[in-house]
Amino acid sequence: MLRSRFLWKLFGLYAFLILTTVTIVASLVGRRIERDALEQTRQNLLSEALLLREVVRDREVGSGGEPLQARLRALGHDVGARFTVLAGGWDGWSPTRIQDPALMETHAQRPEILALAAQPVGTATRFSATLSEERMYLALMIEPGHPERGYVRSSLSLDAVRARRASLRGIVAVGTAIGAVIALALSFMFARQTTRPLIALTEAADKLAAGKSEIDLDIRSDDEIGRLARALSTMSRQLRWQLTTITTDRNQLTAILASMAEGLVAVDRNERIVHMNGVAGDLLGLRAEEVRGRPIWEATRIPEISERSRRPWKKHRRSSARSGCPGRAIASSICAARPCGNGMVPWPERCW
After folding, report:
1. In the chain, which residues have pLDDT < 50?
2. pLDDT value, residue 330
3. CB 3.0-4.6 Å disulfide test: which of 70, 154, 199, 240 passes with 49?
């Protein structure tokens, strides 16, 4: 069974389809996970920026900087984000970092701040030179439509996003791998179940081709394969019956020819000996087994018989003659015959 090439071709096709489907699904799911993770990060940053804007709105950032910075540092530590408040002079605070806000570089040319000129929410994903890592930034105006009041900005490291994305991808990979293994196992079982009756049919056909009419097909399905198996079994039974009938008739004919008092030699249109009974063999000094299939002129070495054996085929009539050879004389009667039924019927009349 496992050596069947058709089995492995069928299973290979199933495996190719399964693995291709699993790869495509895993790729699509991975991309969707990445988009969803980035979108969720953006939504979290937006919520944090809105919260930060409410905290600093209606406050004098310049006068209350130190208390506000301490408050926002604690808030940023709790939510795991980095908050920055930008006053009208574009000086930035980083409440989550212990440093002098006056030492921070100007933020006027940051992409997320520049984006606020055309849209209410500015976002950017870039490498932070201050923290030496890639982060996502989201900025809002403290007072929409009044950039002079300043801006609030929240940011989050993408390392956590990547770790979460890698974890989800790992789960998807394990799930798809398990599904692929199960699908491959089921496809192999199906391929083997489909191939087994085909192998049995092939072996039965080989037996019939080799002349063995005894075949046993235990295929009970109602599909095309089952119908083919039943047809092959019926053909085997009919062939066995016909072979039995032919063998019986041949044995009977051989017995009749062997019991004749006259010698009989049957040749085909190519003048090759088809049958010779024992009497003819004794008369000609030949053995029937040795001359079967040989030309009559080569076997008998009697030109008269060889010449007259051609005439009945040409004229479809009887030809009689006497032939001689050293030590004996042979009277021959030759007529053309054709196969009919189970014996040789002469043309135009039976002759023995």
Report:
1. 61-63, 89-105, 320-322, 340-352
2. 55
3. 154
How many domains is the chain partitioned into structurally?
3
Q: What is the pTM of this model?
A: 0.52
Are 45 and 143 in the same domain? yes
Domain end among 106, 135, 164: 164
Same domain (yes/no): 17, 141? yes
Where are the alpha helices (H) located in 144-223, listed in sequence order?
Answer: 158-209
CA atoms within 13 A on the CB side of 146: 6
DSSP line for 33-49: HHHHHHHHHHHHHHHHH
32 token code pair: 């969707």
Give the pLDDT of residue 178. 92
Residue 179 falls inside a structural domain: no
Residue 305: CATH number of its domain: 3.30.450.20
Domain of 9, in residue numbers: 5-164
Percent of the chain, pLDDT > 70?
72
Find the Cα–Cα–Cα–Cα dihedral 282, 285, 291, 295, rounded to 10°.
Answer: -110
Other Cβ atoms within 10 Å of 299 Cβ, number: 22
- Asked if 340 and 290 sit in the same domain, the reply is yes
- Report the distance separating Cα 300 and Cα 285, nearest Å: 9
pLDDT of residue 163: 84
